[in-house]
Structures are given as C-alpha cells and as structure tokens.
Amino acid sequence: MITNTKTTETITPNLSVAEISQRIKHHLQFTQSEQNGCDKKPAYWRATSLALNDVIVDKLQRTKLRQQQSEVKSVNYLSLEYLMGRLLSNNLHNLDLYTPTQIALKNMGFELADLCEQGADLALGNGGLGRLAACFLDSLATLDYNAMGYGVHYQHGLFKQSFVDGKQIEQPDMWREFGSPWEVCRPQSSQKIALYGYVEDVAQTDGTTKPVWHAGKMLQGVPWDVPIVGYNCETVNTLRLWECRAEEAFDWELLNRGDYLQAHQQQVAAEVVSKVLYPNDEHEAGKELRFIQQYFFCACSVQDIIARFENQYGAIADSNNWSTFCDKVAIQLNDTHPTIAIVELMRTLMDDHNLEWDSAWAICQKVFAYTNHTLLPEALEKWSVALFQRVLPRHLNILYRINDAFLNNDVESLWPNNNDMRARLSLIEEGNEPKVRMAHLCVITAHKVNGVAQIHSDLVKQDLFPEFNQLWPTKLTNVTNGITPRRWLKACNPLLANLLDKTIEGDWAKNLNMLSELTTLAENSKFQAEFMTIKQQNKIALTKEIKALTGITVSPDAIFDVQIKRLHEYKRQHLNLLHIISLYRQLLENPELDIQPRVFIFGAKAAPSYQLAKEIIYATNKIAEKINNDERIQDKLKVVFLPNYRVSLAEKIIPAADVSEQISTAGKEASGTGNMKLALNGAVTIGTLDGANIEIAEEVGDENIFIFGLTVDEVKTLDTNGYNPYHYYENNAEIRACLDWLDTDYFTPGKPGELSAIKDCFLTGGDPYKVLADFQSYADAHKALDKAYKNQQQWAKMAILNTALMGKFNSDRSIEDYVENIWHLTPCKSS
Ligand code: 26V
C-alpha cells in the first residue's frame, strides 16, 4: 500500500492508491455519469477534484467543530479580490495526496499533471493585492489559525487577454461556466441587505428619538464557500464569496400580466452587483455600481460575522457579550475597498443591537485593522458625498458623527483652532463635489495600520499620513509581504522541490528558513550542476509553452529575462522596452557584439481603459515581431509577450526564469511579491531600491542582486528641483536614437507614428516615472549582469543563494507578524 509521502507528521486522511481510485471512479460514475466517445480529461479532472473535495469537506467540518469548542479568536479577512489560481494541484500537495493520486490516475491511463491543467483559474483579483490575500489564506490555514476569508462571488473574474495584430483584446472570464467543483452554496447563511431610502427620527417612549432607516431596496447575499486547505496539518478554513440576487426570483404580478421581460428585471438588476470584478482603472464610469458592490459585500460579511459569533457565544443581549466580541473577532481590511464595513458595524451595533455610540465606537476601534497597499494618489479611494447620501443615508449620518468626534476631540487637542489641519484630516474633502476619504476613515478607526514593506511603511508614515502618525505614534506599522512556498515552489517547481527534499532534512515548505542550509552548497560544483540542470529543464518546458502560445522559437540556452506583472507606467515595462530597443540597435551596428543570447519575456494585462498601457503592449509586440524575425542579429535577442498572464501562467514562467525584472520608480511599488517568487525559484533580480526589493537585497547581499537607479530620496529631489526628461534626450545619444526610431515606420512598416505615443510619454508627457533618468544606470546594470552570466559558476552560486535566502519572504512569517502585532490569535491545533 502506498500512502502519504511525508513522514514528519501524520495528517489525515491516509488514503491508499486503491481508495483514491475507488473514490474517483465513484464520481465518474455517479456525479459525472461518464460516457464513452468524448474527451475524458474534463470528466477525470472533475471526478478527481470532487473525490478530493469529499476528503476536504470532512476535514473542514472537523476543523469548524474544533474551532468552536476551543473558542479561539478568529480573524476575518475582508478583501474585494482573491487571485486563487487553480486549486487541484495545491490541494493535493497540501493534503499530501499528490503521489498516491498520481499513481491512481496513471493506472487509469491519465497523467495527473495533465489533468491539473484542465481547471480554470479562480481569477477573482487584479494583481498583487488579490494574490497576497490568497497566499495569506494558505498560511493562516497552514498555521492552524481560525480564519475566514470574505469576498465577492464574481460571475466573471479578471478579463481574458488575447492579442490581435499586437493589440490587447479583452474577453469575459468564464471561470464557472460549467460550475466549479470546489465551491459549496450555503443558502441557509444568506443575508438581506438594505440600500437607498431615507432616515426618519422616530420618537421613543423615553422622550428621545432614534434614527430609523427605511430602505428603498433590498438585496440578497448568497454565500459560496471555497475550502482553504492548510499544508500538512489538520486545518481547513473557508473563503466565503457573496453572490448578489434579488429577494424574489421574479415578479408574479408582472408575469401574470404577460410582461415577461419586466418580470425578471429585479433579478437582473441585483445580479449585476456581483457580475464582474472591476479592473483597477475605473475612475468615474460605473461608480455607483462599484460602491454598491463594496457595500453589499461588506454588509453581508459583517452580518455573517455577527451571526457566527451569536451562534457560538449566544445571542448578544448586553454589553458584556460585546466585550467578548472584541476578544473573539478581528477584522482586517485589505486596502480601503472594504472600508464601509466599519460604518456598517457601527450601524448594526447601534440600530439593531441598541448599543450607545461610545460602546459601538470602542468595539469598532478594537476590531478593525487596515492594510495600505499603495501610495499612488489616484488609487486612494474617495466616494462622493451625494452618492453616499443617496445609497446609504444612514451610513452617512454615522460617518458625519465619527468625523465630528474626530475633529473636535483628536484634532482639536493636538492642533487647537487649526482650520487648515481640520480640512486636511477631515473625512470629507470639500470642493465642488464633496467626497468621503475612505483611507482617513480606516486610519481613524483602525487600531493598527500597516504598509506592506519597510520602505513603503516608512513612506506611509512620512508622506501619506504624517499627521495621523503624530496623533497616534504607535498605530502605523509594517508587515512585510510574503508568498506561500507551497504554491510558489513545491507545486509549481517539482524538480527543484525534489532536489530540496533530498538535500534538506525536514519540511522546508513549512519552515522556509531551512533553505538557508543551501548557502553551504552554493559553491559546491555538484550541487551547482544539479541546480542548474533543473533550471535548464524548466527552461526547456517553457520554450515549448512559448512555442504553443505564440509560435515563437526560443533557445533554452539564452538568458530568460522575465518581467511579469500588471502593466503600469510606474512598473516601467517601457524602461525594459527602451533597453531592448537599445540592445537591438547596438547589435545592428555591430552584429559581433559580445553579449549572451537573451530572451525577454513579458506577461501583463493592461486595464481596459488605460490607453498608454495598451500602447506599451502594442509597441512591445511590434518591436518583438521585428527583432524575432531579423536574421542579422543571429538569435542573440528574442522578445516574447505571452498572452493572458495569470496565476497558472506565472507558475510555468517563474521556475524557468534566470533574471527577474523589478524596475519600478523608487517609492512607487508598495512591495511587489513577484520579486519574491522569482528569487525563490533561483532567478537573480535586476531592480531598483523600491518596495520589498530593498529587503531582498538585504537578505541575499549586494553581490547577488543587480541594483540600479535613483533612490526614493533622489526621486524626491528631482521632483523638487523640477525633472526635465529633455535633458536626457539631448545629452544621451543612445536615448535620443532609440526614441527617434519610434517615430519612424521601422517597427510598423507603412505606418509611421504608430509608436510615437511611447516617445511622447517620455518627452511631451513629462516622463512622470523617470524612465529616462534611470536608463543609463539600468543599461549599465544589464551589462554587469551579462558579464556575470558568462561565468556560469558565479551565476549558479548567485541563483542558489537567491533560493537559499528567501526564508523571510514566506507568507507564514507575514501571518505570524500580523498575529503578534495586530490580531493576537492563538492557533487551534488538533490534539
Ligand atoms: C490601483 C490603481 C487604481 C487607479 C488607477 C491606478 C492604480 C494603480 C495601482 C493600484 C493598486 C491598488 C492596490 C494594489 O494592488 N497594491 C499592490 O499590493 C501588493 C500587495 O501588497 C503589493 O505587492 C504591490 O506592490 C501593490 O502595488
């Protein structure tokens, strides 16, 4: 009998190959009703997933019972985004059932790795923020914490991207067109949510008045639960995603009168609320719907948190129970998107549970904490007061009162009679269209506010919220991000994971600091050879993927240089592109130029209404076309833009990367997490002193990373003195030649000027992200990198040390930081 492979701990279940086969066959026969003659892979994928889900649901129920009985505090992670990716392979790894399932399927004629490719990604997020939430859920379960993720059950996640003549085309994501085997609908936990209407002050018998909200519309929130399986432990937590429906399926009255379309109107209008994930570029359009989406999700989650509390600790009758509430419940706001949950909890406590203002406020301050994920002013949320008034009139009353108390007590005590300070810190930004500053509400309420990397947290204190930091000097803090090594090494890079298994004693995936043992092997030529052979095999696998996706042939012997992340000017894909143009130019001038063959690999989605981002994609594709087909440069340069970048594609690219591009303008990238994933898999970073790059450099040492460019302070100085991109254009012949080239029709034959938007953004556009200022230093860093790669021993050592020294960036460490400084949880292990 073959059972679980790991021996460090006994985890349930301990299923044999025969038992797994039998469970899969059961689902094939009874759930799939398998038929002959059609493609069997989807049916086998589903049957395998369902068989596994049976095991998971059983563990989930036992976890719930354990958590209830132990009465440990729970954390509720509120996030509008979760980028979960695919679940089959990860769930198998976390349950230690990968190998027996692989054998079971092999006996039935299937490769498990093939089947794992069948499922759609759960792409319910835009980028780093959503993926961080997914990594944190994995770590919370792995560390046996009582945690619940709350999110939106979007019918369509992040759009699917394809290229037509180099241009990005978006199509809807259909992740659950045929249902998802992992989620379970729980109608018994549905919530009713009020919107619109008006507030009336109703006289009470004791002579006082009480505000009563007469809602104008009701929505229904229906939860779908996705299990979150901890790694090598007994815990399975829940991600609860809310779907919006109307209260009534349709209007009988209208149907009976024959108005069939109108009869379904309410349902259609309600479903729109959870229909689609908003790409993070929406400034004005669709505002009201996004606001309602946020409120709907927050209200459902807050009501559910209270219902779960009451279910466990009894109905809340007096304030004693409420002090228990603070001891038992933490709520983490993932950015400002779920801020309205604060006001919803205030409203519920006062209006539905008759608490006094002070008690309700004290509870909110103890329960909520907030994570800031960006300093970009355009990304800081503000909602119009008029919109608030119309959609959530009662909430606006409460918000005004929070503001009054804050301005008259906190602000007044530190800055008496200071109207300027009051205006600056107020929850309301005055102007033609007054707005509510959601971030201010978060900072005022939360007991802790954290940034996501040290430099970012410092800038949150210094530049974003300096006054709040003066008011409450211990509130603002740092928790450096992390990534789960289960998905980002064990599952996505099985060859390297195997090498680590046989090299390191103990479960490195549960304690990533163990990887530091590899430092002693970094110069061992046998180990170097093994490590680099694995890199080569992963590169060969990626060349096949590249061929299949784009038709482009690349050599695995070239340096694989990777930039994968959302497309944004601050991330500076156009700096990478400018450097590629420059290399190409140099090669045309001197085809014998001694450089290592290089494949530049991009993966990025541009927000649909972000024009310049789309121009950058188009330019990259056009320049790639020209370079890839130019025989004069003898394949020394290739450029590949892989379409539809997403978690499952990242899992293929990352194990094959030699070089990781982390080149944001200093001070703009809050943390980055792709930087951690790539380094963990043995890629060497070329990067600026920004976000978590700084901490990565501290860990791996300056000699194992290529740092270039302006520092945060230098960027600030340039800004103060007035940045002039023309200075670089006029004084750097290489920059000038490359930019002028973009005005010709060289890359777009017959269509001169098609790429001029790129040149313009650097010059007439003012180059807001200082690409030209950093260009020379970037090109020099690349030269140094090219030289380092020529020495294969030196390179192998660098790559190994990058893997070895990533222990800090494990999301388990991030979670322990949150637990210690913010949530104060105790684990709930099985005895
Ligand atoms: C939002 C928006 C909205 C308006 C248009 C421009 C824009 C640009 C960026 C954003 C990002 C919002 C928050 C976010 O996703 N932050 C990311 O969070 C990651 C996890 O903490 C972190 O690693 C990334 O550095 C950070 O950009």
Tell me the name of the CATH class of the largest domain.
Alpha Beta
How would you describe the shape? globular
Q: Helix count? A: 34
Total beta-strand segments: 25
What share of the residues lie within helices?
Answer: 40-55%
What does this protein structure show overall?
Strand 21 (598-603), helix 24 and strand 22 form a beta-alpha-beta unit. Strands 1, 4, 7, 8, 11, 12, 13, 14, 18 and 19 form a ten-stranded mixed beta sheet that branches. Strands 22-21-20-23-24-25 form a six-stranded parallel beta sheet, with helices on both faces. It has a three-stranded antiparallel beta sheet with strand order 15-17-16. It has 34 helices and 25 strands. The chain folds into four domains: 15-70 and 87-120, no CATH class; 123-315, Glycogen Phosphorylase B (Rossmann fold, 3-Layer(aba) Sandwich), CATH 3.40.50; 339-479, no CATH class; 496-815, Glycogen Phosphorylase B (Rossmann fold, 3-Layer(aba) Sandwich), CATH 3.40.50.2000. Helix 22 (525-550) crosses helix 33 and helix 23 packs across helix 30. 48% of the residues lie in helices and 15% in strands. The longest helix has 30 residues, at 41-70. The chain is an alpha/beta fold and 831 residues long. The radius of gyration is 28 Å and the shape is globular. It binds ligand 26V. Ligand 26V binds next to helix 6. Residues 127-129, 132, 280-281, 335, 373-374, 376, 378-379, 452, 481, 568, 669-673, 691 line the site of ligand 26V.
